[in-house]
Amino acid sequence: MSKRELNISRRALLRYSAVGLAAVGGGSLLAACQTTNPETGQVEGAGLQQRIDSGQPVRVAVANEPPYTKLEASGELTGASPDITKAVLERMGITRIEGVQTDYDSMIPGLDADRWDIVSAGLFMNQTRCSKVLYASPDIVSTESFAVPAGNPKKLTSLDVVKSSGANIAVLAGSYELKTAKSLGVPEGQLQTYPKAPDAMQGLSDGRVDAVLLPTLTLESHKAQYGGDFEITEPLAEIPTTGAGAAFRKSDKDFHAKFDAELTKFKETEEFAQLLEKWGFDAEASRNSTTEQLCATEG
Hints:
Layout: H1 3-24, H2 26-32, E1 35-36, E2 43-44, H3 48-53, E3 58-62, E4 70-71, E5 77-78, H4 80-91, E6 97-101, H5 104-112, E7 118-119, H6 127-132, E8 134-135, E9 140-142, E10 144-149, H7 159-165, E11 169-172, H8 176-183, E12 191-194, H9 197-205, E13 211-215, H10 216-226, E14 230-232, E15 242-244, E16 247-248, H11 253-266, H12 270-278, H13 283-287, H14 291-295
Parallel strand pairs: 3-6, 3-7, 11-12, 11-13
Antiparallel strand pairs: 1-2, 4-5, 7-16, 8-16, 9-15, 10-13, 10-14
Helix pairs in contact: 1-2, 4-11
């Protein structure tokens, strides 16, 4: 064979090899961009639908803050938001679901980093968060209150009173309450951050703070579960009614659209109302709120 013929043969081989790869090996090339973590068994670099199709569980991030979310020692995932999310996924034929506990500061970064697939944790919608994730239709709507020592010695009934009295209040790191208190002019020096609600409540019990600012239902749930010598104020009028829904990566927009369509249908059922009422939430408040309204909240 001449040198010219040899060069033509090599070019032909490369050309036909490329065609063959495009025709039958494209999926293999795509799969090469995905790896399986040997420690977790999770497919990394795959979209949510691809993960489900490969037999992987849907990972749901929660904060373990009843009544919004609750992760039992057994690993059972429950609470108002997860119960709704699980019900919708099951209506979509998806039953492999696992809970992952994290704090609020980590929820959206962890979602973007593919450490979990859905945030279902009472993560209140606001302009900032809605710019980063895709929220489904609201599943819970909430109000905010103070937990204060019995008798409310500093007469804390609003954030204006907090500012004028110089009282210190506890909020959770990265929370809606922290951002809202700042936006309403509470000085940073009067805000003490804690990682979780029980830590904040312990701060109140120990006298390190004068009040704890949390969702009304969270405080009521803590009182019912643990007791304590504190009382809960009426909902604070200056804090807008807030709501949350399941949050998805923007790259999972097709799955988000399917989930949202199924959730919209589910919200009209009696089962939806019963799930929310079990945790103390009003189904009509959720039905009458929209993602667009709640995403307009400043945050």
